[in-house]
Amino acid sequence: MTTKEQIVENWLPRYTGTPIEEFGSYILLTNFVNYVTMFAEKFDVEVKGQGRAMQTATAHDITIINFGMGSPMAATVMDLLSAISPKAVLFLGKCGGLKKTQIGDLILPIAAIRGEGTGDDYMPAEIPALPSFRLQSTVSASIAKHKMDYWTGTVYTTNRRIWEHDDTFKEYLRQIRAMAIDMETATIFIVGFANSIPHGALLLVSDNPLVPEGVKTEESDKKVTNDYVKTHLEIGIEALTELRKSGESVKHLRFE
Q1: CATH of the domain at 231
Q2: What EC number(s) is this enzyme filed under (predicted)?
Q3: 255: in domain
């Protein structure tokens, strides 16, 4: 294999256990296998990729992929998805809230701050990590249908998983006025841009890590899963279903 196209066409099935031709045109990304399981149960379809690096399920031209956690894996899945040139990719991620957010709130980011470093291997640091407006607009409408509200703003993406003890870093987060922090969104945005893949994100606030009592625990994470994940997933499915039915292009930028 001498070209990127040859590599990703071989590696996408290798990572996921799913043949190229079985992927939908619309992709949901998640860090958690229970999202894939819930999707599969909803549509009575098989979960593929058990024992592989990534698991998938597909129904109605939508494929959900659990790609794992962190910026390098986010870049990997966006590179692999170039093998199928999806019409839209929506990341359903969890994040730490940094301002007035409460656990269970939704954040629809208008941009992501590239603090993870991985995106620098794809695009110069000066290029902002932005979502596709048409996709985010459709997600906004889906949230409204559920009679829910959401926050908007920037999300800071970092490679650091354990930083809640670092007061200097927490002060930096306050200074840049980010709405949330996670480990994937900026990478998905910038690598999606590099691969000409329309992309967006809907983030679920799972903790408030700037204060000691807000740091995620096993117990608090279970509560988030039990109380909020189903709706998070439903909104994502409905947004991509609406795009599929409309037949409209999600691309809003000229990829040159």
Answers
A1: 3.40.50.1580
A2: 3.2.2.4
A3: no
- Which tokens sit at 205? 């606030």
Determine, yes or no, domain membership for 238. Answer: yes
pLDDT digits (tens, 9 = 90+) for 179-238: 999 999 999 999 999 999 999 999 999 999 888 877 888 888 888 899 999 999 999 999
Neighbours of 140 (CB within 10 A): 16
C-alpha–C-alpha distance, residues 95 and 180, integer Å: 6
Query: Which residue's structure tokens are 């998805």?
Result: 81
* 16: in domain: yes
Centre a 10 Å sphere on the Cβ of residue 154 and count the other Cβ atoms it contains.
Answer: 21
Residues 8 and 88: their CA atoms lie apart, in Å, by: 18
Helix (H, G, I), strand (E, B) or coil at 114: strand
At 141-160, the pLDDT tens digits run 999 999 999 999 999 999 99
Q: Which of 83, 48, 37 is nearest to 197 (CA)?
A: 83
- Please tell me the pTM assigned to this model: 0.94
Q: Determine, yes or no, domain membership for 252.
A: no
- Asked if 109 contacts 225 with a C-beta cutoff of 8 angstroms, the reply is no
Phi, psi dihedral angles at 153 (to 5 degrees): 140, -160
C-alpha 124: how far from chain center? 22
With the CA atoms of 206, 209, 211 and 216 taken in that order, what torsion angle do they form, in degrees rounded to the nearest 10? 60
**Residue 251: pLDDT over 90:** no
Per the structure, the count of domains in the chain is 1
Domain of 130? 4-246
